[in-house]
Fold this sequence. Notes:
This protein is α+β, with helices and mostly antiparallel strands and about 300 residues long. The chain has helices spanning about 5-20, 20-35, 65-80, 95-105, 105-115, 145-160, 170-185, 195-205, 210-220, 250-255, 275-280, and strands spanning about 85, 120-130, 135-140, 185, 205, 225-230, 235-240, 245-250, 255-260, 260. The protein has a three-stranded antiparallel beta sheet with strand order 1-3-2, with helices on one face. It has a three-stranded antiparallel beta sheet with strand order 6-7-8, covered by helices on one side. Strands 4-5 form a two-stranded parallel ribbon. Helix 8 (about 195-205) links the parallel strand 4 (about 185) and strand 5 (about 205). Helix 6 (about 145-160) crosses helix 8 (about 195-205) and helix 7 packs antiparallel against helix 9. The longest helix has 18 residues, at about 145-160.
Amino acid sequence: xxxxxxxxxxxxxxxxxxxxxxxxxxxxxxxxxxxxxxxxxxxxxxxxxxxxxxxxxxxxxxxxxxxxxxxxxxxxxxxxxxxxxxxxxxxxxxxxxxxxxxxxxxxxxxxxxxxxxxxxxxxxxxxxxxxxxxxxxxxxxxxxxxxxxxxxxxxxxxxxxxxxxxxxxxxxxxxxxxxxxxxxxxxxxxxxxxxxxxxxxxxxxxxxxxxxxxxxxxxxxxxxxxxxxxxxxxxxxxxxxxxxxxxxxxxxxxxxxxxxxxxxxxxxxxxxxxxxxxxxxxxxxxxxxxxxxxxxxx
Length: 298
């Protein structure tokens, strides 16, 4: 009987394999085509839950198109990652070229960053791809923890100072607009922090990007959906309120400064909560933004 034991066992195994042939085939196929697993860490506290017409949150970080790559970089910035690795699928043969095209275009990558909270935006971006499709991303943030703490503390103080009980959101936005303009001036010397909210709120001097960041951070702190709009020469704010998108340009509402001297100390509201046709009627040179990117306000 013993001599029949091994053949019988082999017949049993063969029968099981035939019965389970589909499951075994699927398992073998998965082993052959298995992709590296993308490690997705938790986002930081400044992540926005918003999607926009130009960028949307990525859930799996696996790209199959240029739009997927744009969404991945939006999500990397939006989640507050400083390093991240994702992989190009073998069937997406143009993936590496598309990654390099998107990240090598300063306008495109800057536009993507304008949709995230300023504290999660970048000042420098390094992207390395290899022949196997691995994409390594290193993000240098614009704001370090010291600046973030100082700005948050300052905004809390400002809110306590300018907001009153029962004040509605429209009045709060106007108060913020006026406060920033009244306590900062356009920095003709372009000092170290003139391009960010620290210059606007702490040092009291900034460029247009400093005004825009300060307003964006304040709006986000109030829970208002917003992003920054950029042209080739300028940057300002767009926000969604009461079912409509509007734009605010603090730089152009600030009193005119010439050679360090204030020509007028009157806070203007000409560029406050305006739509695009109104904005364009005032100026088409510096406000001529890309309508294929900032689609909500086109």
